[in-house]
Structures are given as C-alpha cells and as structure tokens.
From TrEMBL, chains A, B:
Keywords: Metal-binding. Gene3D superfamilies: dinb family like domain. This is Damage-inducible protein DinB. A divalent metal cation binds at residue 146. GO terms for molecular function: metal ion binding. It comes from Hufsiella ginkgonis.
C-alpha cells in the first residue's frame, strides 16, 4: 500500500501540530530529561556505561550542543559546526545549569522562527540538509532516544527512572 | 520566561506538521524499529534483559498493541482496553509478521482520521485522556524511547544497532 496515494486527499493536509504546540512538546520532553539527569548519582552520570557506549553525561552534552545552537540556527540561519561534546568533564550541577540555560535559549529563539521557515530546507550545522520541521523533530527524537538509554543505565544502577508519561 | 506569553502571537500558530507528514514520520520510525528487531538474535530478543527490565520482544509487543488498536481508535473512536502484552511468547519471524500487519493497519486507518479530529480530546484505550495529536505523539515517542533501550541491549550483546538517522 503506497502512502503517497493514501494521502493525496484532504486528510494528508490536515494541520496537526503548530509551532506553539511543538515548542511545548519539546520543553515537556526537556523537563523529563532534566529529571533523568537529576536521578543519576554524580559518579554514575560521568562514569557508568553499558555495552561500550558513552556515559549519560556525554549524551546529555550532545543534546545541549544540538538544542542551543540548533534553535539559534533555526531562527537566524547562522549555523556553526557542531561543537565537540565528547572530551569535556564537569559536575552534575554544571550540567544542569547548562541544561537550564539552553531551556531559556530555546524559549528565546523559538518565537523568532519565521512561520514560513518551518517548511524551508536548511543545512543544520553546515551539514544536515532537511526541511526545518524535520530537523527539529530530529533534535527531539534524538533526545528521547538517548534518554531511553539513560533509563537503562539508571535501572542497571538500581535506580528507578522518572515516570516517562510525566512531563510536568 | 513564560512560554504562554512568548507564543501569543502569530508564531505560535504557524502550521508545522500536517497529517501526511506525521504519518510518514511515524512509518519512518517504524522502519527503523523493524530493523532493530531484525538485528537481535532470536534468543536474545526473547530472553536478554538489563537492570531487571523487560526483554526487547516484550517492549515490541507493547508497541504493537498500542499502534494497531491505537490508530483504529484514532480513526473510529472505538477503543478497547489495552491488550495484555507481557505473557506472550513467540518467534522473531512471528513478531516481524505482526509488525508488518500493524504497518498496513496504520496506513489503512490513518486516512480515515477526520481532519478536525486531531485537535479533539480522546480517551485512548478508555483511560488516557488527551488531544488526539498528543496521543499520537505519545505513541511515537514511546516507540523511540523503547527502541533506544533496545539499542543498549544490542550493544551489550556485542551487536551494532542500525543507524539512528537512517529511516529508509
């Protein structure tokens, strides 16, 4: 069954998610990710891994360097190369502080994204070419993906993760 | 900074994602999840766990009983209680077959979702009350979340997961 033929009618064009809803959806996920960071013990956050993967702190740093410069790029079309996020160390408190700064940055730049721009093709970080809405969905999906991995780390550390459904 | 005040203007109402885009987005994720199931060895799929969590097969069964009856409920407003998905056993081949059936079911019911209905409040599976668009985003987010956990299982089994960015 070809999706393209199914969606040629009015149904495929039905508006589902607008800019305000998408921002709220992202920030709701960001609140859950923040609680996931908080749930980690300081040492485990920066040292625990499974299967040869990165620490959760390294994943969170990736989310930070994507979200902040990403939303700025979305609004201004000024894209820098993706900042290195592997080598840094730090503390849980510093990480949460950076997380909160990015939350403000997302709220600051989001309303500056021109309405028509969501459908335009952008080259995020100078290398990822896609419509802007797809780029932003990718940012959010990548966060959900890595947070899910953080949940496994927490369980393996004997810690109950925050409730997935709670986005308050 | 209050999000509500930021988004009172035109920007908050900018259409970002329509019905056809959201279907394609979901099915793209479903293709990646299918490849994740395929990457598991038969035994590991039904027996490997970390941190006292469920097997990846049990998570996939949850995704199946959500997506199929979920898209039917979205289109018809006929919601059954969420089917039990814990106790079942089976084979990888059967699981992939069920996955593919649900893919067809999503394509079948999606165009039957009335345009206005995406903004209506539904009570999914008789118990989860939310606007339909939020319910559908939850289905997708839950899939990304558990697939991310499946990636950790694969890594712990010494298997390279499929590329997260590849949705072909």
């Amino acid at each position: 069954m070809e999706t393209s033929t199914l969606l040629s009618g009015q149904t495929g064009n039905a508006p589902v998610i607008n800019s305000g809803v998408l921002l709220n959806h992202w920030q709701a996920h960001r609140r859950l990710t923040r609680r996931t960071i908080e749930a980690f013990p300081e040492v485990g956050l920066f040292s625990f891994t499974l299967g040869g993967m990165r620490t959760f702190a390294a994943m969170v740093k990736e989310l930070i360097v994507i979200a902040g410069p990403g939303v700025k790029g979305a609004a201004t079309n000024e894209w820098n190369a993706l900042e290195d996020h592997q080598a840094q160390q730090g503390t849980k408190e510093e990480l949460l502080k950076r997380w909160d700064d990015i939350t403000e940055q997302v709220n600051f730049y989001w309303p500056q994204i021109d309405a028509a721009r969501f459908q335009e093709t952008v080259v995020a970080f100078g290398q990822y070419e896609a419509p802007l809405y797809e780029t932003i969905l990718y940012f959010i999906d990548n966060e959900i993906h890595h947070r899910g991995q953080g949940f496994v780390y927490l369980r393996a550390l004997g810690i109950e993760p925050p409730a997935f459904w709670d986005r308050s």
